[in-house]
């Protein structure tokens, strides 16, 4: 029992680390036009493995017996072994490639030195290289093949793989703790709720488990981002807030679109005027959101390479510009801190589209079960007056033969009551 006692702290942290104010944000593919994130393996030496996984864990039709190869990473460098009952730490994958995910989770590799744990990263079905039906083209072909992309199936994947792994290494007595952040944090939480016999505890960081069925204030998301930037610099907040109106006026002028495209160094060909409004505003909004979510006192590479205290750095270039002092130049300086910290991008590409499985799969999940409530904007919000939470899935992006089930999450996993 000696090794179990320190692990119990995870069950306490499970509650304390929840954050209902963080919206269920999509993956880094929203930054695909602006940079290529770098993965850094921190103190980890893992092996890439594959597990023959069931396509369907709940039905007994012929189709349900299909299988696919699910990728996982395993690091046993510090593991104390099965005979000592040393723990197994499992990171439940999200919509990212699992190797990229492992490269941003140095914490996992640090604490396994203390707990002598085996570290496992399990890739989420339909993402990365864990693609059913043999190819992304087939897996994402229609609603029938995409129907197996849901949280219940993904959680069952983890339970099946972990149970089999423990048997194979004769570690039936080794306690399992699951980890995750953001969507993966939600999954870790739900896994502990649904499979308590498999996982002793869960550590969920910034896991918005209450971001469904209107369980939190519709203003909470924009309030948190506004408060974070405003607390850094009142003048920075005011500059950003007034910038929306200034850019709106410029766009209404003859040649205003070209003027803003040049001011913000938008790659040619420039988007048409109406598209420029949405994409430029979206570019700025994403920078405000993700800089706040990644406002660490050290360099990070979670969403994009960022310096320490990115919000502070962005506000510094807004408040104290080294070159031109007009509003567009100030905001451009802030965008460069976020999107172009490495200085390798000559312009912002707003016209290319991504067909990656990450963004396609995330759209599907947003259309079906991960249906977010509406996000509302207050007058003092740092976002534009008509701000529409652009991460909320648009109905036009959803297949016509599929209807969302906005209440399925709270029915399946509970809401406030799940924390009791």
Automatic annotation (TrEMBL):
Biased composition regions of type Basic and acidic residues, renumbered to the chain: 394-404
Signal peptide start-end: 1-23
Annotated organism of origin: Asparagus officinalis (Garden asparagus)
Keyword Acyltransferase set for record: no
Protein name: Serine carboxypeptidase S28 family protein
SUPFAM superfamilies noted in UniProt: alpha/beta-Hydrolases
Single GO MF descriptor: serine-type exopeptidase activity
Pfam family, one: Peptidase_S28
Keywords: Glycoprotein, Hydrolase, Protease, Signal
Family designation: Belongs to the peptidase S28 family.
Region annotation Disordered: where it falls in the sequence: 379-407
């Amino acid at each position: 029992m000696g090794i179990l006692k320190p692990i119990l702290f995870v069950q306490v942290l499970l509650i304390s680390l929840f954050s209902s104010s963080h919206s269920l944000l999509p993956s880094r593919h929203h930054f695909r036009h602006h940079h290529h994130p770098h993965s850094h393996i921190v103190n980890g030496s893992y092996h890439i493995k594959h597990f023959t996984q069931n396509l369907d864990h709940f039905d007994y039709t012929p189709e349900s017996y299909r299988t696919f190869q699910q990728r996982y990473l395993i690091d046993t460098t510090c593991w104390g072994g099965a005979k000592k009952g040393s723990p197994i730490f499992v990171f439940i994958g999200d919509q990212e490639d699992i190797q990229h995910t492992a490269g941003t989770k140095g914490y996992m590799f640090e604490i396994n030195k203390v707990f002598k744990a085996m570290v496992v990263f399990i890739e989420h079905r339909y993402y990365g290289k864990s693609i059913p039906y043999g190819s992304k083209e087939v897996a994402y072909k229609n609603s029938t093949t995409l129907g197996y992309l849901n949280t219940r199936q993904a959680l069952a994947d983890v339970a099946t793989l972990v149970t089999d792994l423990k048997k194979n290494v004769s570690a039936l007595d080794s306690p399992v703790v699951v980890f995750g952040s953001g969507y993966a944090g939600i999954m870790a939480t739900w896994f502990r709720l649904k499979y308590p016999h498999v996982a002793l505890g869960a550590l969920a960081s910034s896991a918005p488990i209450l971001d469904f069925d209107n369980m939190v204030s519709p203003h909470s998301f924009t309030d948190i981002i506004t408060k974070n930037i405003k607390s850094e610099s009142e003048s920075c907040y005011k500059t950003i807030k007034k910038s929306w109106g200034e850019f709106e006026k410029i766009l209404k002028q003859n040649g205003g679109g070209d003027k803003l495209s040049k001011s913000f160094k938008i790659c040619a060909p420039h988007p048409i005027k109406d598209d420029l409004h949405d994409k430029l505003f979206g570019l700025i909004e994403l920078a405000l959101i993700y800089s706040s979510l990644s406002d660490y006192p050290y360099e990070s590479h979670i969403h994009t390479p960022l310096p320490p205290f990115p919000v502070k750095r962005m506000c510094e270039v807004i408040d104290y510009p080294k070159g031109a002092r007009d509003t567009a130049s100030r905001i451009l300086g802030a965008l460069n801190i976020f999107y172009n910290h490495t200085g390798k991008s000559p312009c912002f590409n707003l016209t290319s589209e991504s067909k990656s499985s990450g963004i396609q799969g995330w759209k599907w999940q947003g259309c079906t079960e991960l249906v977010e409530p509406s996000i509302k904007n207050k007058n003092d919000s740092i976002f534009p007056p008509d701000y529409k939470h652009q991460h909320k899935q648009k109905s036009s992006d959803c297949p016509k033969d599929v209807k969302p089930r906005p209440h399925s999450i709270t029915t399946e996993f509970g809401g406030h009551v799940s924390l009791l």
